[in-house]
Amino acid sequence: MMAVLVAVIVNFVLGFIWFTPLFGKAWGKEMGYAPDMKPDKSVLMKGMLFMIFGNFLFAWVLAHNMAAWNFVPGIKEMGAIPNAFTAAIFTWLGFYFPGELGATVWEKKSWKLFAINSGYHLASLLVVALILSCWQ
User: Fold this and answer.
1) Distances, alpha carbon 72 to alpha carbons 77, 96, 106, 133, in Å
2) Which tens digits make up the pLDDT trace of 49-75?
3) Helices 111-134 and 41-68: angle between axes, nearest 10 degrees
4) Taking CA 34 as the corner, what is the angle to CA 30 and CA 38, rounded to the nearest 5 degrees?
5) Are the CB atoms for 9 and 58 separated by under 8 Å?
6) For residue 24, how far is the Cα from the chain centroid?
7) Is the pLDDT of residue 136 over 80?
8) pLDDT value, residue 134
9) What is the DSSP letter of 95?
10) pLDDT tens digit string along 14-60?
11) Residue 79 three-state SS
12) What is the CA radius of gyration of the chain?
């Protein structure tokens, strides 16, 4: 459970870094937000609380999924880091990538937004899977 809680905090920090200094301006532009727009503090706090809750569900479910894959022959012999990368990439490829792809095509979102959002999901999965897999 401690690994899940650490993963929640690290994932929250990753989201802040990803959507603020790294890609914040580009993401805001692609979303159609004015560059000088500042969210109301209550909206910001509500968003942060929901993000923390979502990060918890994300890490908790990923931990259970990774544990369920232990039945695969040879999985334990691969080691923690290859298992983390396998879990992250296959989860991203099967669940996140198709959703982002569909949103880009059907909702007419930009490919730049696709790259920012799907890149974040992959980075998030990699970080959380590494924490969960390497935590002993």
Assistant:
1) 11, 23, 36, 15
2) 999 999 999 999 999 999 988 888 888
3) 60
4) 115
5) no
6) 16
7) no
8) 92
9) I
10) 999 999 999 999 999 999 998 888 888 999 899 999 999 999 999 99
11) coil
12) 16
Rounded distance between C-alpha atoms, residue 35 and residue 54, angstroms:
27
d(CA 118, CA 108): 15
DSSP-derived secondary structure for 9-74: HHHHHHHHHIIIIITHHHHHHHHT--TT----HHHHHHHHHHHHHHHHHHHHHHHHHHHHGGGSTT
* Residue from 83, 85, 49 nearest 69 by CA: 83
**Which residue do the tokens 């990753």 mark?**
14
H or E element in which residue 121 lies = helix 111-134
User: What is the distance between the terminal CA atoms of the chain, rounded to a whole angstrom?
Assistant: 11
